[in-house]
Amino acid sequence: MKIALIRGDGIGIDVADAAMAVLEATLQKTGQPKPELDEIHAGAAYFQETGQDIEADGEERAEAADAIFLGAIGLPSIRHADGTEISPHLRLRDRFGLYAGVRPVKAYPNAPQRLADPRAAEIDLIILRESTEGLFYSAAAHKRSLVVNDDEVQDILRITRKTTTKLHRFAFDLARKRQNKGFQGRLTCVDKANVFTSLAFFRQIFDEVKTDYPDVLIGYNYVDAQALDLVRKPWDFDVLVTENMFGDILSDLAGGLVGGMGMAACAEIGDHTGLFQPAHGSAPDIMGQDKANPLAAILSGALMLDYLAEKLGNPHLSDAADLINQAVDDGFRNNRLRPIEFGGDMGTRAITKAITDTVSESRQIAAQ
Ligand SMILES: NC(=O)c1ccc[n+]([C@@H]2O[C@H](COP(=O)([O-])OP(=O)(O)OC[C@H]3O[C@@H](n4cnc5c(N)ncnc54)[C@H](O)[C@@H]3O)[C@@H](O)[C@H]2O)c1
Ligand SMILES: CC(C)[C@H](C(=O)O)[C@@H](O)C(=O)O
Ligand SMILES: [Mg+2]
After folding, report:
1. Does residue 267 belong to any structural domain of this protein?
2. Which residue's CA is the closest to the ligand 2 atom numbered 9?
3. pTM of the model
């Protein structure tokens, strides 16, 4: 199993190391061989040093791996001449067609909840963020803005039938899988179809796809109302499918609901490969201090194992993913996970050790 590893910048480096340590421990526990890591240098610091945002053959090597794992990329102090930041990962999403951005939002026991309502303990939803087009079609990294001059800049919000059909199918399949696991299995289309023709088209394709999934409960919400509802009654939602920029914003909001960005895992899935990374950034305000919560990265590692189980036809990798998810759940339940992010006393290394210890001590799965 070959993983392309892009650790990136700031806390990205520490949380990627944490995720790899946990990955190795779980693979060992489940009797699987160590992954082969191909480290690819990329990011803002690399750009400052070399003038390139990723190693010359980095994109090809990423493509050759079974999956890609990324820490975080970007430092606000290092920018291109137009003011935008160094973002080679946007090119990776584009190049590999990583249209399905899966961002789980789950309240763990004893983790801080920002809402007083006891139902906040039930929050367990997934934001499915389209990740290649929408308003990001025009991201500076792609140089596709329509007008750029001293007086005006125009960006493009692009919705295509091909990508949107795949996205909505992915969303309905996900809702169905969740239904089979005992969740509501309700899918909400989040858009702004009241104002934008492009987003009315997004909803129209949702309606076309839904006819193949009569068993899935559906709903609609405009994105502004969805922001309200995520604060007012997040427990009512299960799977939300949305445009790229909306998903970017809502996923940070939702991360905040369940403690903070250190809990915000992410999988970006395309037809041929997947990229796994925490949804947070390089957090320059806490970098180099062993303060980052590595759980978003560790949980992204579990998403990667689940993806690889299917891709490589190896169910032991799913067992390894379950071990990680269980260790996080148990850790919070038993108060063995107390991240500094939540006012606790455990830094990046201590959290990582608590998870690897739990995995190694686990009696659930004997090494084979
Ligand atoms: N996927 C990515 O690589 C990615 C995502 C978002 C931002 N960025 C980049 O990261 C840099 C910083 O961006 P930002 O400050 O807007 O967002 P950020 O996610 O880095 O930080 C936002 C806030 O959340 C906190 N935070 C984030 N992750 C945390 C963790 N694991 N544990 C504890 N606290 C955590 C930070 O300390 C900060 O207060 C920018 O250069 C931005 O472009 C990269
Ligand atoms: C850093 C940035 C390019 C990225 C995005 O906007 O997609 C980040 O915010 C994310 O959510 O993964
Ligand atoms: Mg974001």
Report:
1. no
2. 248
3. 0.97
